Amino acid sequence: MIENKIRKSTVTSSVPAPSELGLAPSFGFGDRIGLATPGHIAAVRNSGTQIAPIFAQQSIREMTRTSRDPRGVMGDAMNALGGAKWESSHGADADHLKTPDDVNRTAEAGFTFFTIDPSDHVDQKADDYSEAQLRELFEQVRDSAEWFDDYRGKSVKLSTGAEINFDEVTLLRAAVKYGVAIREAITLANHIRHVQTEAGRDFEIELSVDETDQPTTLAEHYIIAEQCLKAGMKLVSLAPRFIGELEKGVDYIGDVAALEASLHDHAAIAEELGPYKLSLHSGSDKISMYPALARATRGRFHVKTAGTSYLEALRVAAVCEPELFREICDYSRQRYNTDRATYHVHAELETVPAPADLSSDQQLQDVYLERWETVRDGLGFTEAGRQILHCAFGSVLTHDRLGPALRSCLTSHPDAYSDILAEHFGRHLSALQQGL
Ligand SMILES: O=C(O)[C@@H](O)[C@H](O)[C@H](O)C(=O)CO
């Protein structure tokens, strides 16, 4: 184990520095405010789970929207771990990294789990191109897809019985869609290795290709993973875009049995080429699919959450300072259509009653923070209210009055927030445990 040397200013002496988690089942507790870690720790401790935690986890996108920086995210988590006298291993996820500067800033702050996001180089329209369009576009990416002929005409039979046929159109589509993205991911992974090795620090890499409109096919997964591994990427987990809808802040939308079959196939690729873990992004509240994920991967999974801890922070406001919560709902509605960009959500403002039309505070909480146990009196269970609040997190947290007011509410009711999170994530962890 490379001794981790992270800056004293972010490490409380008794708390172990973040380290590699390897292939252990793991769970990311993203915290957009910096006050959620006590509740996350309580959830892990109460559950007695063997699932390894990542407490410091934020994407560059989240940090940008909340005006936080990597050292602040690390400091908030480590200080909470110190306060809880945490002595076990834990990871730290620098999420959705796109540039060498993203790597440098997060590595310097002590992160050890680096999630590479090459989505800016993925041709999202590739799934709709005709063969003729693919052939034409392939000429522009041929140099990035030197692997093309290695797969031509080949097929692979997975341990699940599924067969992957690398026919020419499949290869053309994979090359046009991911050719440049694979190259860019390998380049960033090499930079991560250089930075961390030079500093004598641990590191492990996740590759995220989950933020695409269409699911990642088995052929695409196979090519992406094999090329990255051949290039020496220290791949501990990969996040494909799974079938169904994995939207922010709400449960899985789709046929869970079909998803489980697909997960078995993706897990078979990870086992054959790696092994590495399958990673579930937007993992918040996806309770209905958790047992399937744990079963299909035989425990080789990573689940990443963040939005749900923010929504549960708003639950504290809803309970303790309902007028503040009402204002946050109003402001979130004002911001939603702008802030929803880059997020996969279905909610439309018109489908959710405005706060002014929900006179009772309980109704307001039921509509905007509905969860699996919400008793709905004809309000409809669309979870759309959750998505409106979820996407506007940055606007609210950086609002000159609402942001400080929400933080003040949470620091005035720390036990309320911790208890709500402990219960909420207790359900998440026990759902995963069912499949282990
Ligand atoms: O909002 C974000 O940028 C993060 O929450 C990001 O989406 C993360 O990878 C995630 O999926 C957490 O659920």
TrEMBL record:
Coiled coil: none annotated. A divalent metal cation binds at residues 96, 248, 281. Its cofactor is a divalent metal cation. Its EC number is 5.1.2.7. InterPro entries: UxaE. It comes from the Bacteria. GO terms for molecular function: metal ion binding; racemase and epimerase activity, acting on hydroxy acids and derivatives. It catalyses: keto-D-tagaturonate = keto-D-fructuronate. Keywords: Isomerase, Metal-binding. HAMAP family: UxaE. Catalyzes the epimerization of D-tagaturonate (D-TagA) to D-fructuronate (D-FruA). Belongs to the UxaE family. This is Tagaturonate/fructuronate epimerase. The gene is uxaE.
